Amino acid sequence: MSRAIKRIAHEIQEHNGDLANLVLIGIVRRGVYLAERLARALPTGGIAQIPVGTLDISSYRDDSRADGGGPQLLGRHVPFSLDGKKVVLVDDVLYTGRTVRAALDAIADLGRPESVQLAVLVDRGERELPIRADYVGKNIHAAIGQRVYVRVEEVDGLDAVVMGELRQTV
Is the pLDDT of residue 72 over 90? Predict the structure, then answer.
């Protein structure tokens, strides 16, 4: 995982050049920790650190995941203006694209960035919406009925990417 974070950070720096106008926004929950790690891995170029915000997209979702299976309502913390900024949206797994669509709606409510880029640790494919990541740590194919779980030290006590059966709720 650390190697993927370093590679993504290098690609972000290579693509954006001067990072003075760059901000990272992690999607609650594990995307936040990945965004913080990316910020530490990016060269600061004289600024203290790349600003990191958090974004909860639960109220923006258009599917049933907002009813319990998806991210919990944990709020947002974006202590800087997005106007004219290069925003890198960070999430753990890209699958259908619905989380990213919801995040784009939330970002639009917060300001008008110069651009929005997407960084994900895992891209498992099989989109429902025409969304793709600009920066990907690892592409994984998971069969229908399987789910990809990203575990991070800060929440789960270890760093891992795990594939498991989709849990059905009754």
Answer: no
